[in-house]
């Protein structure tokens, strides 16, 4: 059977194939075969026993998923079948969202990523929580600047200014179940590029009313 939207063949295992599993999960699901050449012929895989332990663990640790990993054989050659179900929740690999389209794996970016996340969660990219970043990791000077400018503009009261940083972020809807959102990291971490390469922030000036007068991005 040739490769299609639900089947991918790989002659040997590489950890980068976790992206393909991520892509299947975010699309219709599918099967990844290890030890099978591109033309569908079984070529066999080395260290099958070790891979039968390593692959499920790596999938669980990297993608948060449990999938069926089966050891099969043909003509005395062992190969591995990874059966990936479609996920109702968006699945990411190291912060990236991959998607199976036809017989290709696509990295979702820009409007395509926004549409995908809204379709699955009704949540925008910047509102997704981030693992591995805590309140103590954020930059104190950034909070001081925020409070100073908010006070100058009259957008925060004295009571607002007295809030802790954690309370401030919560009131700004920059936390989800106790976790910082991507927007919080972009705004208040000194080096957000550690998590989000290529991300940018739009700054808008609203003046006295709700209408946006101009904006800039960096």
Task: Give descriptors for this structure.
Methyltransferase, Cobalt-precorrin-4 Transmethylase, Domain 2, 218 residues, 7 helices, 2 domains, 4-stranded mixed beta sheet, alpha+beta, elongated
Description:
This protein has 218 residues and is an alpha+beta fold. It folds into 2 domains: 7-117, 2-Layer Sandwich (Methyltransferase, Cobalt-precorrin-4 Transmethylase, Domain 2), CATH 3.30.950; 135-217, no CATH class. Helices cover 32% and strands 20% of the residues. It is built from 7 helices and 10 strands. It has helices at 18-26, 48-63, 110-121, 140-153, 158-161, 165-171, 182-188, and strands at residues 7-10, 30-34, 68-74, 77-84, 98-101, 104-107, 175-176, 179-180, 202-205, 214-217. The strands form 4 sheets. A 4-stranded mixed β-sheet has the order 1-2-4-3. It has a two-stranded antiparallel ribbon with strand order 5-6. A two-stranded antiparallel ribbon has the order 7-8.
How are the strands of the biggest sheet laid out side by side?
1-2-4-3
* Major sheet characteristics: 4 strands, mixed
Structural shape: elongated
- CATH fold group of the largest domain: Methyltransferase, Cobalt-precorrin-4 Transmethylase, Domain 2
Overall number of structural domains: 2
The chain-level structural class is alpha+beta
CATH architecture of the largest domain: 2-Layer Sandwich
Low-confidence stretches: none
Task: List the total number of helices.
Answer: 7
Radius of gyration: 23 Å
- Helix coverage percent of residues? 25-40%
What is the level 1 CATH name of the largest domain? Alpha Beta
The helix-strand sequence is EHEHEEEEHHHHEEHEE
Average pLDDT reading: 90
